[in-house]
Design a protein that fits this description.
Number of strands: 0
Largest sheet: none
Helix content: over 70%
Order of helices and strands: HHHHHH
Strand content: under 5%
Structural class: mainly alpha
Radius of gyration: 18 Å
Number of helices: 6
Oligomer: single chain
Shape: globular
Length: 140
């Protein structure tokens, strides 16, 4: 097994943590006007700004923790696809001209996490281990 295969779960975990942290920070900045983003915050439950930021904060946090990772990443990916096609694409075809690079990158990054899983150091691993331990005890 070469270096790339041995370190794949750990590099995937680092990728998941960094992407989730950036996404959660963006949501917190939008909702609460923190982390260098002073100014107007969306009204509670206002569509789509407040909901997008809430999804960013919650899904990003879940991805960082590795809790319900695949579902959280899939929802995050879908929200960024929506943001790209509804907000950015009408302004132009290419992400460089419509300002949609972050939406496109987050969309594809979260889709990768949804399909490849959380990697190492995920809370999800504790649930899968405890459920497999229970199944082994029942079948024994």
């Amino acid at each position: 097994m070469d270096l790339f295969d041995r370190t794949k779960p750990h590099v995937l975990a680092l990728f998941r943590i960094v992407v989730g942290l950036l996404f959660a920070a963006h949501g917190a900045a939008t909702l609460f006007g923190v982390l260098g983003r002073a100014g107007r915050t969306p009204e509670f439950a206002a569509w789509p700004g407040w909901w997008a930021a809430a999804i960013q904060l919650v899904a990003g946090g879940l991805v960082v923790l590795g809790l319900f990772t695949r579902w959280a990443a899939l929802i995050a990916s879908g929200s960024m696809a929506y943001a790209y096609f509804v907000v950015h694409a009408p302004e132009g075809l290419w992400p460089m001209e419509n300002g949609g690079e972050p939406s496109a990158m987050f969309c594809w990054a979260f889709l990768l996490i949804a399909f490849f899983g959380p990697g190492a150091w995920a809370v999800d691993q504790f649930f899968s281990r405890s459920s497999s331990t229970r199944r082994e005890a029942v079948t024994a």
